[in-house]
Amino acid sequence: MRTYFPCPSINWYPGHMYKATKNISKKLHQVDIFLEVRDARAPLSSGNNLPINKTKIIILNKIDLCSVAYTQKLMEKMKQSGEHIIMYSATTNQNINTLLKLIKEIAPAKFQTVGSWMMIGGVPNVGKSSIINSFRAHSRGFTNKNPAKIGPEPCVTKSISGFKVSMNPIIYLVDTPGIMMPKLENNEQAMKLALIGAIKDEIVGVDVIADYMLFCYNKIGNFNYVEKLKLKEPVDTLNDLMAILKPRYNWDELSIAKNVLKMFREGKFGRITLDKQSQLAD
Ligand SMILES: Nc1nc2c(ncn2[C@@H]2O[C@H](COP(=O)(O)OP(=O)(O)OP(=O)(O)O)[C@@H](O)[C@H]2O)c(=O)[nH]1
Fold first, then answer.
1. Does domain 15-179 match CATH 1.10.1740.10?
2. Which of 23, 150, 268, 273 is most enclosed, with most CB atoms within 10 A?
3. Model ipTM?
């Protein structure tokens, strides 16, 4: 099995992200707190380092897809350096009460009628809009009308908009477009972001991303994909996988890569955490 993956150099910082970064800075003074959303499968790599001069809570979303024990260890280390950090799932509302309690503690509303104002941000596709909808679903008094737009691909949210997300306590949340770092210095970090769907597939290529996914599973010795794809044994590369699946399903190469990635992103191959504790500075 491969012990090294030659990660390509990837940069993706379209103009709308530049504009959104500027707009966020302009509007930051209007809020009490910033919720930085990261993907729990990449709790370090999906932090976008926006210069936020505000009380911040880091939400590790998609906890239902990560290897909990591993992400928890990373989280505990980040907590030790003074971060407010919480694991969350917008699809199951897991830990919503803990999050609301934390918000109340660190940013209580100055006036009950005005409520707390928060901004939510992070790299694309980590679940920012889904979190807004999960808050609204949890709080009484909201209908399903006008939810924040969500989707499986990055950059569904294009502009900054405000939502009332809780009646008691009153909380307003400002949604922002996903923003990537202007320069990704670390090629492996970029591949992890591509794998979790934070970078548009076309930028990297679904075949490269699916190949990297196989590399990651093999490296950590998680072979759930073998059973799910009805293989006899682990495969080293996407080419090996294609040689088996192509005749079986009569799929072209692109369809194989796309389907395998879709299964990964839906959690069909089991939980995974891509970052390592060794990436954290002591
Ligand atoms: N499994 C799982 N999927 C989630 C969770 N939260 C969000 N998603 C999915 O992740 C995808 C992206 O969610 P969005 O809420 O659109 O993400 P976003 O950060 O607002 O995306 P941008 O518009 O790119 O900024 C959607 O397919 C959601 O259904 C979660 O906790 N668990």
1. no
2. 273
3. 0.99
